[in-house]
Each structure stands twice: as C-alpha cells, then as structure tokens.
C-alpha cells in the first residue's frame, strides 16, 4: 500500500495503474462504516484508493474542524488490512493553494436539511469531491447512505457536470444497538452513547408506520419527534420526511421517501436516515 501526499504523486500512481479504480473519500478516524466501503470497492475494482482529508471547506467557523478526531497511523493500519492499494493524505495547502477560487455549488439539494443548518457545507463537499475525482480519475466512487444528502448532492454534481465515473452508495453500518457508526460518536459521554440509539428507534417507528399504510408525512414526522422526546438527553435539530430525489419536504408519501433526522446530545450532533417504503 502506498501513502501519497501530493497531487503529482497521485497522478503518477494513476498513470502507472491504469486499471479500474475504486475511490473511497473519507475524513479519516476510520470505523467499520468506512471499511465496508473499502471492501465493496475492493470487490468491484482492480485498484482501490482511499483519501483521508479533513476538508476545511466543509466546516463552518463554529464547527469542530480543529478537534475533529485524527489518527493517521491507526487509519493506515486498517486500510492496509482491508486491501487498499493507495492512500492519499494531502495537507490543506495542497488541495487549496494560495489563489484557489473555484467552487462547485449544487443548487437545490444543497440548501435544505444539513445544508440549511450548515451553510456552505455542501459547497465544500462538492468542491473537494470534484477535485478528488479530477486528481485520481476513479472508475467508481463509494459513499455511505449514512450521509444521504451528500449522496444526492454528489450524484447531482456528477450528472450535471458529466463526470465520467459511477457513484456507488453503500448501506449504513450500525453498532449492535442500532447507532449508526460515525467518527463523531467518540464525542459522546457514556450516558449520551447509551441514549444515542434513539435516532435508530425513531426511524424504525417511521418505517413501521409507513409499512402499515401511514401516508401523512406530518404524522410520520410527529412520530419521530415523539420517539426522540422520550429520551431526555436528546434534543431534536430537525426531523424530515422528504422526496428521496429532490429532498423537498412531503405532505404525503406517494413515491420513494427519505426519513432523516439530526439530534443533539449536548454539543454533539448526530444524523441518521432511512428510506420509507
Ligand atoms: P466521513 O469520513 O465521515 O466523511 O465519511 C466518509 C464516507 O464514509 C462517506 O461516504 C460516509 O457516508 C461513509 N460513512 C460514514 N459512516 C458510515 C456508516 N456508518 N456506514 C456506511 N458508510 C459510512
């Protein structure tokens, strides 16, 4: 496994490895969710590249950029074990050199849900992902359903800009109690960690009601709010039932719908989602 820090080195590596390439973009602090993406990429491509880059452009000024968990030696060990061929670990100045001034703004899907609470977040995500695609030129890129809106934004960007690769979305990996794996789970106290599966329970409740025939999106949102309210350590940021493609809030569930939520435990904000049948 090669660890590369410069764009020039990645370009040379890609030129020497012209076979099909699966790319897994990450911010590091890897867990089984990331490793599942690497395994899927391993199964579907001749070469697998992973990027580890805590992208300053997708953090707002008040967010956790400085304290975001970082452990490169551990990450590299996990990636070697999972069968990655190359890991790109650039410094911010390599990705955003002085004078950098071109941004990718995916309109519509970027402005709601996470985008409404985190202004500029998806502009930062779309820009860095577009750059990584240009640098590594993957055949396929792998993303987690855990970040459902990110998947919508990236797919829309690939379509709108005619980028020559396939986007593969992989299911959310969860702990035994249902909590979606996340690098930010390390911020939780022991009590908050115990309370955190309430997100999963709320989503399961929405799934159950929808499967039983509930079409009223307000009723589904209310059921999720009630489930979260039963957990004193949890504070709802948003609860959503939206069109799975446009992410517009629904009045009634008629086609593919995405139930999603963001919940605070103290200062830590967790997100999760599920499709409603
Ligand atoms: P991050 O390092 O948080 O930017 O995540 C890198 C990639 O891993 C993104 O495509 C995420 O959606 C994906 N990911 C994060 N957590 C999970 C999870 N629990 N299951 C599956 N994929 C995940």
User: Strand order within the widest sheet?
Assistant: 1-4-3-2-5-6
Fraction of residues in β-strands: 15-25%
How many β-strand runs? 9
Main sheet properties: 6 strands, parallel
Radius of gyration: 19 Å
Overall morphology: globular
Q: Number of helical runs?
A: 10
Order of helices and strands: EHEHEHEHHHEHEHHHEEE
Hetero groups: adenosine monophosphate
Uncertain runs with pLDDT below 50, 5 residues or more? none
What number is the mean pLDDT?
A: 98
Global structural class: alpha/beta
Q: Calculate the terminal CA-CA distance, rounded to whole Å.
A: 42 Å
Fraction in helix: 25-40%
Note down, in words, how this protein is organized.
It is globular and about 55 Å long. Helix 6 crosses helix 7 and helix 9 (198-211) runs antiparallel to helix 10 (217-229). The strands form two sheets. A six-stranded parallel sheet has the order 1-4-3-2-5-6, sandwiched between helices. The chain has a three-stranded antiparallel sheet with strand order 7-8-9, with helices on one face. Strand 2, helix 2 and strand 3 form a beta-alpha-beta unit. The chain is of the alpha/beta class. The protein is built from ten helices and nine strands. The structure holds adenosine monophosphate. The site of adenosine monophosphate has 17 residues, from helix 2 and strand 5.
């Amino acid at each position: 496994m090669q660890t590369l820090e410069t764009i020039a080195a990645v370009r040379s590596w890609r030129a020497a490895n012209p076979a099909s390439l699966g790319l897994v973009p990450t911010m590091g602090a890897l867990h089984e969710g990331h490793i599942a993406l690497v395994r899927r990429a391993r199964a579907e491509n001749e070469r697998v590249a992973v990027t580890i880059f805590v992208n300053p452009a997708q953090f707002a000024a008040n967010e956790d950029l400085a304290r975001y968990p970082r452990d490169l030696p551990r990450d590299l060990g996990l990636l070697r074990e999972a069968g990655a061929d190359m890991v790109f670990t650039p410094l911010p100045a390599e990705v955003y050199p002085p004078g950098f001034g071109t941004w990718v703004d995916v309109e519509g899907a970027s402005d709601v849900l996470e985008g409404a609470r985190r202004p500029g977040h998806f502009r930062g995500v779309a820009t860095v992902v577009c750059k990584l695609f240009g640098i590594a030129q993957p055949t396929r890129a792998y993303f987690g359903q855990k970040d459902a809106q990110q998947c919508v934004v990236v797919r829309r960007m690939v379509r709108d800009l005619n980028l020559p690769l396939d986007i593969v979305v992989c299911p959310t990996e969860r702990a035994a109690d249902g909590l979606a794996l996340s690098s930010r789970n390390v911020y939780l106290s022991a009590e908050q960690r115990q309370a955190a599966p309430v997100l999963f329970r709320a989503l399961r409740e929405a799934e159950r009601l929808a499967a039983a025939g509930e079409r009223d999106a307000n009723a589904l949102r209310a059921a999720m709010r009630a489930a979260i309210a039963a957990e004193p350590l949890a504070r709802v940021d948003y609860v959503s039932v939206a069109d799975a493609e446009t992410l517009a809030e629904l009045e009634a569930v008629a086609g593919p719908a995405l139930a999603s939520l963001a919940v605070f435990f103290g200062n830590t904000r967790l997100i999760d989602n599920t499709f409603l049948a």
